[in-house]
Specification:
- It comes from Lacrimispora defluvii.
- This is AraC family transcriptional regulator.
- Keywords: Membrane, Transmembrane, Transmembrane helix.
- By secondary structure, the chain is an all-alpha fold.
- The protein is elongated, with a radius of gyration of 28 Å.
- The N and C termini lie far apart (67 Å).
C-alpha cells in the first residue's frame, strides 16, 4: 500500500512533531514572559523561564550533534570505500600484468 507510513516513519514523525511543539512553546513562553514583574527570589515565572531555556539548549545540542553526524557519516563512508578499493588494487603492477616497457 502506497502512502502509508510504517511504524518507524510514524514514530519519527511523532518525535519531530513533539520536538517542534516543545521548541515553539518554550520559545514563545520565553519571549512573552521575558519582561515580567519579578516577585523576588522564588519567582515561579523566572523558574519556568530557566526550565524553558534549558529545554531549548538541549534541543539545540541534539540538533547540532545530529547535523554533525549527518554530515560526517557520508564522508567517512566514501573515505573507507576509497581506502578499501586502494587496498585491493595495490598489488597490481606492470610487472604483475607482464607489460613490457620498451622504448
Amino acid at each position: 500500500m502506497k502512502g502509508r507510513l510504517n511504524p518507524r516513519q510514524w514514530a519519527a514523525l511523532m518525535a519531530a512533531l513533539i520536538l517542534t511543539v516543545v521548541f515553539l512553546g518554550s520559545s514563545i513562553f520565553v519571549f512573552t514572559h521575558l519582561s515580567h514583574d519579578c516577585t523576588g527570589r522564588h519567582c515561579r515565572v523566572c523558574q519556568e523561564i530557566e526550565v524553558c531555556i534549558s529545554a531549548l539548549s538541549v534541543i539545540f545540542e541534539a540538533i547540532g550533534s545530529a547535523a554533525v553526524t549527518a554530515v560526517s557519516l557520508p564522508i567517512i563512508k566514501y573515505t573507507m570505500l576509497l581506502y578499501l578499493a586502494g587496498l585491493f588494487l595495490c598489488p597490481v603492477s606492470l610487472v604483475d600484468l607482464k607489460i613490457r616497457m620498451n622504448n
